[in-house]
Design goal:
This is Tetratricopeptide repeat protein. Residues 1-28 form the signal peptide. This protein has 687 residues and is mostly helical. The chain has a domain at 8-96: Serine Threonine Protein Phosphatase 5, Tetratricopeptide repeat, CATH 1.25.40. The chain has helices at 2-43, 47-60, 65-77, 81-94, 99-111, 115-128, 133-145, 149-162, 167-179, 183-196, 201-213, 217-230, 235-247, 251-264, 271-281, 285-298, 303-315, 319-332, 337-349, 353-366, 371-383, 387-400, 405-417, 421-434, 439-452, 455-468, 473-485, 489-502, 507-519, 523-536, 541-553, 557-570, 575-587, 591-604, 609-619, 626-639, 644-656, 662-671, 675-685. The termini are far apart.
């Protein structure tokens, strides 16, 4: 009986247990059905309907981690990342071993740009599953977004090891390498990605960007062209192809590309500005002026059109027209920082330095974050002889935009003026590192290398310029003069020969080629070039000067004097003519007459190093000239410490003065590369 009662009690407990458990089983089943319904809706991209179902499941069972997880995913799909993060956080609270919850929350943090929290979650997810390439991929993205490019590259590399056939990973690693200026490494990654996905125009476009950054303009153009064949609506590809074409001096092609880029994307950054620059540099002056001129006729109150027309006129060296355009632009839009900044540059170009300074200051007042405003201010201060203030402005420009290559180049120019040659070289190096395709930076560095006596470096930079561009008249003109002035006659001849070929009616280019030929001891052809220059421009005094000097080298003193006197009759302040006539006076042993002509040179051009050394040499022949001779050689070396000719001439002067230290000067001249110095060592010093 007792046993029966007991059995009945057990039966009653079991029955009560079953009764009590029935609602829980029912609730669980109901929550599960909402999960199934929510997932089905999510699969059909009805994310809001899915969220409603997952919410019902949570209401039934608040501790159901999967419901929070699924709802978080749905929130993520409608870009409600804050809600997604809350649900992933609840999922992790209920199920801390859910790797995907950590992973997906990290991705949501990425979406709201909270990259540090994203990285922490990726770290946790990777610690739980180190074989998931996507986790490394997305963590790399987060690291890249906080500037940890080295860390990002390491993660992309791990992801590539796990999934080596994913072109996206090579693409993104290439982009990150570009951010570190490792353009060669970037190109290597893009090459692999392109082999895997040859019809992906973006990959080819990115590779073009990297090639352009390396100064490989031809390679960049080839890639942009290939990318455009796959995607002809890529405005940026047209724009950057235009940049590469401009760097090569092919302004006609660049203009067409800039116009197409603007047509596809009217507000493309710097589109009109770069188009204006290309128009101004083109040989088609009429077409350049017509482009914005026609637009101004259609929209005469558009301040930007006057700004761009002003840029065109500046590049065409129409200073008056440019200033008028900038004035009009500012009148229409007195808050345009770009208009004030460009007018500042135009005023600096017109030597209106005080007004240029005021414009640059107004540009900065309107936009203190515009580094170019400080660059323009610095350039104006250089004109006002305030190089200390100018340097401070360039330092500010670089603090604002530490990757602005132009700022480093201009700071280098200021340091060159201050005779801080080694420091200037470092700034030119940095400008080239940031903008390796800009030929002008190599020309600037040539100037600094000449000052430091780095002749090998000069030749290397000259060769780099030739490899970058062969059709930039303005650059080649300055390059030729720089090389000739530094006595790099072979390189200077090549530059002027190219200019004569392209511009056969320009007398100055025959003059430059003649000087180069004369420096190479090809006097006959040099005189032929001077003859041609005079035929094209009978008032070109430099041609008479140099032809006279060439005749002098042939001992045709009468012919030389005739040409030089002709030059002086055309231009009384022709310092070079006085210099050559002084040299003739030395040959005639009229040393005081030579000194008088050198004095005339220095009266016209006070800092002419060459004149100081030659006047010193002439003074060495005068009975009372020793003290003045020493002062002139000292000044020549102060102005140009590593000039080989100064040491050579001082050695000869010391021989005239019976000074036993002449061999030290010949030795120094020889060390600096002087063949005359080497010959003098053998002749006078027995070496």
């Amino acid at each position: 009986m007792r046993q029966t009662i007991r059995l009945n009690k057990i039966f009653i407990k079991a029955a009560l247990f079953a009764l009590l458990m029935m609602p829980l089983f029912c609730f669980a089943q109901t929550a599960d059905s909402f999960l199934q319904s929510g997932n089905q809706k999510a699969n059909n991209k009805d994310y809001r309907g899915a969220i409603a179902d997952f919410t019902r499941a949570i209401e039934i069972n608040p501790n159901l981690s999967k419901a929070y997880f699924y709802r978080a995913n749905a929130y993520g799909n409608i870009k409600d990342d804050e809600s997604a993060i809350k649900d992933y956080t609840k999922t992790i609270e209920l199920d801390p071993k859910n790797t995907n919850a950590w992973f997906y929350r990290a991705d949501s943090y990425n979406s709201i740009k909270d990259y540090k929290k994203a990285i922490a979650d990726f770290d946790k997810a990777i610690s739980m599953n180190s074989r998931n390439a996507d986790m490394y991929h997305y963590r790399a993205n987060a690291k890249s977004n906080i500037g940890d490019y080295e860390g990002a590259i390491a993660d992309f590399t791990t992801a590539i090891k796990l999934t080596p056939h994913n072109p996206e990973l090579y693409e993104y690693r290439g982009v990150t390498k570009s951010n570190l200026n490792d353009f060669k490494g970037a190109i290597a990654d893009y090459d692999i990605a392109v082999r895997m996905d040859p019809h992906n125009s973006d990959l080819i476009y990115y590779r073009g960007n990297a090639k352009g950054s390396l100064g490989d303009n031809k390679g960049a153009i080839a890639d942009y062209t290939a990318a455009l064949a796959l995607n002809p609506n890529n405005a940026e590809a047209f724009f950057y192809r235009g940049n590469s074409e401009s760097n090569l001096g092919d302004y006609k092609a660049a203009i067409a590309d800039y116009k197409r880029a603007i047509e596809l994307k009217p507000k493309i950054r710097n589109g009109y500005k770069y188009l204006a620059t290309a128009l101004g540099n083109s040989k088609d002056e009429k077409g350049a002026l017509e482009y914005f001129g026609d637009q101004i006729k259609r929209d005469s109150t558009n301040a930007e059109l006057y700004l761009y027309d002003g840029i065109v006129r500046s590049n065409l060296d129409d200073k008056k027209g440019a200033l008028a355009d900038f004035d009009k632009s500012i009148k229409l839009d007195p808050n345009s920082t770009d208009a004030f900044q460009n007018r500042s540059d135009a005023r600096t170009g017109s030597k209106l330095y005080a007004a240029a300074k005021e414009d640059a200051e107004e540009s900065i007042k309107l936009d203190g974050s515009n580094s170019y405003g400080y660059i323009s201010l610095g350039r104006a201060k250089v004109g006002l002889k305030d190089t200390t203030g100018a340097l401070a402005d360039l330092n500010t420009a670089i603090r604002i935009a530490p990757r602005n290559d132009y700022a480093y180049a201009i700071r280098g120019d200021i340091e060159l003026i201050q005779e801080k040659y080694d420091i200037a070289l470092k700034d030119y190096d940095k400008a080239i590192e940031l903008g390796p395709g800009t030929a002008d930076y190599y020309l600037k560095r040539i100037g600094a290398r000449i000052k430091t006596g780095d002749r090998k470096g000069v030749v290397q930079d000259y060769q780099k310029i030739i490899s970058i561009t062969t059709d930039n008249e303005g650059l080649y003109k300055r390059l030729g003069k720089t090389l000739i002035d530094a006595r790099f006659y072979a390189e200077g001849f090549a530059v002027y020969n190219a200019l004569v070929k392209d511009y056969p009616k320009n007398a100055n280019y025959y003059l430059g080629r003649g000087i180069a030929r004369q420096g190479l001891n090809n006097t006959t052809e040099a005189i032929a070039d001077y003859d041609m220059a005079i035929q094209l421009d009978p008032k070109l005094t430099e041609a008479y000067d140099n032809r006279g000097n060439a005749k002098l080298s042939r001992n045709d003193i009468d012919g030389a004097l005739k040409d030089i006197n002709k030059a002086i009759s055309i231009k009384e302040d022709d310092d070079q003519a006085y210099f050559y006539r002084a040299n003739i006076r030395i040959l005639q042993k009229n040393y005081q007459g030579a000194v008088d002509d050198y004095n005339s040179c220095l009266y016209i051009s006070l800092d002419n190093t060459k004149v100081y050394r030659y006047r010193a040499f002439a003074e060495s022949f005068l009975p009372d000239g020793a003290e003045r001779m020493k002062a002139d050689f000292d000044e020549a070396l102060r102005l140009e410490p590593n000039n080989e000719e100064t040491y050579y001439l001082r050695g000869l002067a010391k021989i005239n003065q019976k000074d036993q230290t002449s061999c030290a000067d010949f030795s120094k001249a020889a060390q600096l590369g002087s063949k005359d110095g080497q010959a003098a060592l053998r002749k006078y010093c027995g070496k």
